[in-house]
Amino acid sequence: MPKVFPRLGRRRALQGAAVGAVALALLLWWLLPLGEKPPSGTIVFSTGTSRGVYQEYGERLRTELGRDMPGLKVKLLTSAGSQENVQRVATGQADFTIAAADAVATYKLRHGSGAGRLRGVARLYDDYVHLIVPRDSDLRSVADLRHKRVATGLPDSGVRLIADRVLRAAGIDPHKDITPVADGIDTGPARLRDGKIDAFFWSGGLPTKGLVALAQQGGFRFLPIDDTLVTRLHGQGEGARYYRTTKIPESAYPDVQQGAQVPTIAVSNLLMTRTDMDPRLTEWVTRTVIKSRDGIGAHVHSAQLVDLRTAIYTDPLPLQEGARRYYRSVKP
Questions:
Q1: Average of pLDDT values for 87-101?
Q2: 3-state secondary structure string across the chain
Q3: pTM for the whole thing?
């Protein structure tokens, strides 16, 4: 004969079931709005160079978007980096992208085509500037780069924007006082290893996979970018105010750093779109970005830093209406 629960036990059981149902409903609402059909169609996402963090993040975000919105097709476009990404979204060549805040601000201040239509979706993670030289190089500071072969990034990349500014802050004309080379993270490490360049700039999340293998070989070391240079950078105007002093932690490239931190600068990365993007679609994209942090972060370390509390701070861009709706819906 089945055991009859005591009245108090049955009440507790029902209360527990009710709490569980509420918790499950809240979880489902967070992951997938109940009763709402996912958006569909096609969007274009501009990423970055191969072996860079933008590209890997974009690929993994596309997978997560496909899980949440099976009817949405996401086309990825490789790019030179931040400057090209901003221009693509502003002019309608892409719908979403990632770009550094300094590049966004510079595009707006220079009144680039469509700049007024740009809107923020989420603040993601920080880029750290890497200034890399061979391990046995006699170069010790940015000022020592004068008359050297220096990779300053691809044209229209965020790296090029930062590298030129850092060089000017050190009193070096990037067009006259060095031999500039247009290498990015995809080609720079190999060219440094082969002795074809003396130094190269990179700006990316930590650690950048394109540097990990070279670091494990002990094939390079960092030049510091100290506080004095950052102060001079801030005096250049435009988007330079978005740079802040920081240090590359010793855990980023342990085989190279040997327990030492590296003074440098950092700048925030923004996920962005336009005013005319469907707010409902943007709301869904924002939700996926936030909830997929840990899944993507297991492969792209920088993505672990995406945080709901800071994601809304997309300065110099106001939030797109769909992103605003999402953040309001989850506000405590």
A1: 98
A2: CCCCCCHHHHHHHHHHHHHHHHHHHHHHHHHCCCCCCCCCEEEEEECCCCCCHHHHHHHHHHHHHHHHCCCEEEEEECCCCHHHHHHHHHCCCCCEEEEEHHHHHHHHHCCCCCHHHEEEEEEEEEEEEEEEEECCCCCCCHHHHCCCEEECCCCCCHHHHHHHHHHHHCCCCCCCCCEEECCCCCCHHHHHHCCCCCEEEEEECCCCHHHHHHHHCCCEEECCCCHHHHHHHHCCCHHHHHCEEEEECCCCCHHHHCCCCEEEEEEEEEEEEECCCCHHHHHHHHHHHHHCHHHHHCCCHHHHHCCHHHHCCCCCCCECHHHHHHHHHCCC
A3: 0.86
